[in-house]
């Protein structure tokens, strides 16, 4: 039997979409990518910052970026040929970065004193956002003369790789599909942010990549503010079964309010955890496993039976 344990990452994932419906060509996509990267950067920074002035500065920046993207560009684009449009979008991307720089220059001294990193981010990250060379890796299989290697792995001299955990906050992608052929995924859910978000992102990823994934009833999303301590998403044929275990839940929090407070108190967006907090989280996680021992054993047994049937069939 094949099974895996998934561990959470320390970043919450938020996916932001902006649309320029009439012009969704690659130039527009590129522009939106720059915008989304900037908004995500603002978002992550906001999560690390407590001072109200700094938060309001970040809100201002977000508004500036939003206004720039939302202003109606149809008229400008209409008159252009594809090359002209591409040029416009490139210019607008640079304008977005320029706006961040201008914003950072207007900050009063001391606003981000304890978070000088943000300046570093602006200086170092902005140029990277435009070039987008993160994760670019030389492909050692480029033109490798072996027919057993699929052409998609030999045709390009460079790959663009993304950390599956950063993408979805939990490394589901590595464990989906025929190659791994996983029967059971036990997924303790300790992410900050919306409950079930990692799961629905993984499901969307599976759909887009045509990988088997168990059915997720959207009804459970209504429980996101006070989830159960265990959910089982049964795999039927090729799909793995997923046992999903929210760290805070109906068993250890008496109501939505307590759940919200616990999620905030133990959010991963803080450094460092005190020893007491570490102990508390470990004990809570242990108790969750114990409380669901019967479900876990049952699903492990079921997965073994399914595997045996597959091997015999
Ligand atoms: C943008 O402006 C064009 C004309 O310039 C108009 O036809 C279009 O409806 C506008 N779009 C939005 C979303 O306002
Ligand atoms: C599950 O845990 C409970 C409480 O610790 C225990 O009584 C029970 O025997 C356990 N069940 C299995 C199948 O191990």
UniProtKB/TrEMBL annotation:
Residues 1-26 form the signal peptide. Keywords: Signal. InterPro entries: Acyl_Trfase/lysoPLipase. GO terms for cellular component: cytosol; nuclear envelope; nucleoplasm. GO terms for molecular function: calcium ion binding; calcium-dependent phospholipase A2 activity; calcium-dependent phospholipid binding. Coiled coil: none annotated. One of its GO terms (biological process) is glycerophospholipid catabolic process. This is Uncharacterized protein. It comes from Mastacembelus armatus (zig-zag eel). The lineage of its organism: Eukaryota, Metazoa, Chordata, Craniata, Vertebrata.
């Amino acid at each position: 039997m094949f099974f895996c344990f998934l561990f959470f990452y320390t970043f919450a994932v938020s996916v932001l979409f902006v649309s320029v419906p009439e012009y969704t060509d690659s130039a527009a996509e590129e522009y939106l990518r720059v915008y989304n990267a900037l908004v995500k950067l603002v978002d992550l920074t906001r999560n690390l910052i407590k001072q109200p002035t700094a938060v309001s500065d970040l809100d201002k920046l977000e508004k500036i970026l939003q206004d720039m993207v939302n202003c109606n560009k149809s008229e400008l684009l209409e008159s252009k040929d594809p090359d002209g449009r591409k040029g416009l979008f490139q210019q607008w991307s640079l304008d977005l970065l320029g706006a961040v720089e201008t914003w950072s220059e207007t900050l009063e001294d001391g606003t981000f004193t304890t978070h000088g990193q943000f300046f570093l981010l602006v200086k170092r990250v902005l140029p990277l956002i435009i070039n987008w060379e993160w994760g670019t890796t030389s492909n050692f299989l480029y033109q490798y003369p072996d027919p057993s290697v699929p052409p998609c792995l030999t045709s390009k001299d460079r790959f663009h790789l993304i950390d599956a955990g950063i993408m979805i906050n939990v490394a589901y992608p590595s464990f989906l599909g025929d190659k791994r052929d996983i029967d059971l995924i036990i997924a303790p859910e300790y992410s900050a942010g919306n409950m079930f978000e990692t799961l629905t992102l993984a499901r969307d990823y599976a759909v887009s990549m045509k990988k088997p994934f168990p059915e997720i009833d959207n009804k459970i999303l209504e429980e996101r503010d006070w989830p159960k301590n265990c959910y089982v998403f049964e795999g039927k044929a090729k799909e793995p079964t997923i046992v999903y275990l929210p760290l805070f839940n109906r068993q250890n929090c008496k109501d939505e309010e307590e759940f919200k407070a616990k999620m905030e108190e133990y959010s991963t967006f803080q450094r460092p955890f005190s020893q007491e907090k570490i102990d508390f989280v470990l004990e809570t996680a242990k108790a969750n496993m114990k409380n669901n021992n019967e479900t876990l054993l049952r699903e492990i047994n079921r997965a073994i039976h399914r595997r045996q049937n597959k091997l015999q069939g």
